[in-house]
Each structure stands twice: as C-alpha cells, then as structure tokens.
Amino acid sequence: MRRLLNYFLNGFLIVAPIGLTVYILFALLRWLNDLFAGLSFDVPGLGLLLAVVLITGVGFVAKSFLVRPFVIITERVLHRTPLVSIIYSSLKDLFDAFVGDEQKFNRPVLVQLNVQEQTYKMGFVTQAAMTAVLRDDLVAVYFPHSYNFSGELVLVPLDRLTYLDLPSSEVMKFIVSGGVSRLG
What is the 3-state secondary structure (H, E, C) of 45-95? Predict the structure, then answer.
C-alpha cells in the first residue's frame, strides 16, 4: 500500500504542474475566444490573436506624439484620484519592475543573514541607497517567496551583500521554485 502511495505522489508531482499549466492556458484561450463569440464564424485562437494585435496596436498608438499627451493626462488623473491612485500606481510599478524600461529586478544578490551560522538568502537590489530615510549605508533588497507571488523588502548593510553575476531571470526562477530549478 505504501508503494502505491509513493507512486501516486510521484505521478502527482509530474502531472499537477503540467495539468495546471495546460488548464490555465486553455481557460485563458477559451475566455479570449468567448469575447468574440458573437461573430458568425468560430475560429480557434482568434481571441488570442485579436488580443495580441489589439494590445500591440494600443502600444503603437500610445507612442505617437499626438496621443502621448492624452496618455500622460490620463495617468495624472489616475494618480490623483483617491483609492484608484493606490491601485493604479502599485500595479504600474509592479509591471514596470518586470517588463518596463526601468526593470527593478535586474541586480541579484546573495545576502549574509547570520554571520555565526553562515546563512544566506538570495534577493534583488531595488534601491542602491536609502537616502530618503537618511541611511546611505543601507540597501533595499527584495526577497521573493518561494512558490508564491509575494515577498519581503529588507534593508541590508552593504557589507553583507555579494552581487551575483547571473541572469536575473534565472535567479528569480531559482528563488520562486524554492531552489529546485538549476542556476546557470
């Protein structure tokens, strides 16, 4: 009986991530296709294709010198509207941190947490100096949590950091996977 349970758990560890990934992608494609269900013809993948074209078109138009002032005005209004400003600015900062022109998670570091026990933690420098709190000797380091879309920000003395010469995406994948994926 114990051997069967082990086989089940091994199978589950293989099937669950693949199954969830396929399910999420399928649900996303179905949702996108349902957006265009009112059309008289059904083309699988049309919703995804139209969404990609629409988002690309919005990006193209937003870079236009004629439209750019309207985008700036809209962002100012969103930033000044109570409650909306908190949600909008948080989401905008989050997206900019990963895919914007000023990516924030591009400097992976190894931080020594405890000198006696020689414990370390991997993270990303988000602010090189904490001038705003009058502590230029501290660095803001973000530590993502494993298997979760959350993390914690810790201010760390500069002498406890070791900058890693590794791609940020690999370090993020390593941390989020709980150290299961390979580095380098």
Answer: CHHHHHHHHHHHHHHHHHCCCCCHHHHHHHHHHHHHCCCHHHHHHHHHHHH
Q: Which residue has the tokens 């700036």?
A: 72
DSSP conformation class of 174: H
Q: Under a CB-based contact definition with an 8 Å cutoff, are residues 69 and 125 in contact?
A: no
pTM of the model: 0.48
- What residues does each domain of the chain span? 2-99, 108-176
Single-letter residue type at 100? G
pLDDT tens digits, residue range 42-54?
667 777 777 778 7
Only one residue has tokens 């509207």, namely 81
Q: Are 146 and 175 in contact (CB under 8 A)?
A: yes
Sign of the CA dihedral 57, 59, 63, 68? positive
161 within 8 A of 111, measured Cβ to Cβ: yes
